[in-house]
Amino acid sequence: MKAVIINQFGNPDVFQIGEIDIPKINNDQLLIKVNSVGINPIDWKQRKGNHKLILGSPFPIVLGYDLCGEVVQVGDEIKRFKNGDMVFGALDNKYGGAMAEFAVGHENCFSLKPVGISINEAAAFPMVSLTALQALRDKANLKPGDSIIINGASGGVGHIAVQISKLMGAKVIAIASERSWEFVMQFKPDEFLNYNNIDITKQNKKVDVFFDVIGTLSFPKVKHLLKSGGIYLNLNYLHSLTKIPVNVFHQFFSNRKKAKSLLMKHDQSDMELITNWINENKLKVSIDTIFQMDQIKQAHEYAQHGHNKGKNVIVISE
Ligand SMILES: NC(=O)c1ccc[n+]([C@@H]2O[C@H](COP(=O)([O-])OP(=O)(O)OC[C@H]3O[C@@H](n4cnc5c(N)ncnc54)[C@H](OP(=O)(O)O)[C@@H]3O)[C@@H](O)[C@H]2O)c1
After folding, report:
1. Where in the chain is the domain with CATH 3.90.180.10?
2. Which of 69, 228, 267, 308 has the most CB atoms around it within 10 Å of its CB?
């Protein structure tokens, strides 16, 4: 099959389009004919080799986690899907494997594609919506009436987090640059702060949750913006492990305020909840740019620049 492969870690020049074997499935897996792949920052971080100490260097590597495509083979234990189903989800393999004509994942990674959205939109949804949902519900314990600051509200996770926070009944203060104002305001945050012309840490505000999606701040820098018992949350999971001693020290002197981090989990019921929200028109994903498979280098350069509004997607096959 045709696949986007890397044989070394490095800049976007390491990508090649080559031929590799179609992956084999286990009894509890599905084989998907891939239509579209959503790009996430983890893809370009892994291309650079950031996770090689944990995941190794099993070249040739096929990157990419988020996809939408058609089920073409199911393992003997698969109950929920059959050949011909259109599904979307985030793969659970080391390094993903989505950027190829065929990809493999376990059943709990997928849900049936909602009918009212495009294939590209479906491919853009999984990782950012699972992350935002699990962060806000499981880590931040966000409740109706709570207030939350979302730093990085215009990116993939951020624009979904604004919508889910509103669905949960919270008051949302969104942070992004001035050029993202119009984009973010369509998701109806209660307030918008432009990080270019104000110092967030000097704001006279008290919130229940500070969700540092983009990770430019830290618990010590913003804990004074939290109410008593408030939660600082980021997505920089590995880096956060090294910060535990510092955060514990700051938590000790900070009136029950807590610093937390999240690593997204594959969860079938969360995929179903997200699918329901999409079907009910309560959650939408916004696509910044759509690239073709042979534009993979440009796609990673653009995504890595870090100023997309919403998501970028790669079309593998129409
Ligand atoms: N732990 C996990 O399980 C997990 C899961 C998913 C993602 N993540 C991580 O979460 C982070 C965010 O992911 P993402 O998909 O949302 O990234 P993204 O789409 O690349 O984020 C881009 C956005 O960041 C905003 N931004 C850039 N610099 C900023 C700044 N200084 N202050 C505030 N906003 C800024 C940009 O807005 P402007 O253009 O307006 O500047 C842009 O809209 C990444 O580091 C990713 O690896 C972790």
Report:
1. 2-125+285-315
2. 69
Q: Whose CA is nearest to atom 46 of ligand 1?
A: 41
What span, in angstroms and rounded, lies between the C-alpha atoms of 253 and 275?
Answer: 42
Tokens 């042979």 map to which residue? 294
Quote the ligand 1 centre to 128 CA distance (angstroms): 10
pLDDT-derived band of residue 103, with 50, 70 and 90 as boundaries? Answer: very high
Cα(269) to ligand 1 centroid in Å equals 25
Q: Whole-angstrom distance between the N-terminal and C-terminal Cα of the chain? A: 16
Q: Alpha-carbon distance 70 to 59, whole Å?
A: 26
Distances (CA, A) of 176 to 46, 165, 191, 214, 218: 25, 16, 11, 10, 17
CATH 3.40.50.300 fits 2-125+285-315, yes or no: no
Fold of 128-261: Rossmann fold (3.40.50)
- Does the pTM of the predicted model rise above 0.90? yes
Burial 227-246 (b: 16+ CB within 10 A, else e): beebbbbbbbeeebeebeee
Q: What is the pLDDT of residues 228-267, one digit of tens each?
A: 999 999 998 777 777 777 877 777 778 899 999 999 999 9
Residue 22 CA to residue 42 CA, distance in Å, equals: 24
Token pair listed for 236: 């920089």
Which atom of ligand 1 is nearest to 307's Cα?
A: 39
Ligand 1 and 132: CB distance under 6 A: no
The tokens of 150 are what? 């979302």
| Cβ-proximal residues to 140 (8 Å cutoff; 6+ apart), any chain | 148, 208, 209, 211, 231, 233, 260
Backbone phi, psi, residue 115, to 5°: -75, -30
Residue identifier of the C-alpha nearest atom 25 of ligand 1: 152
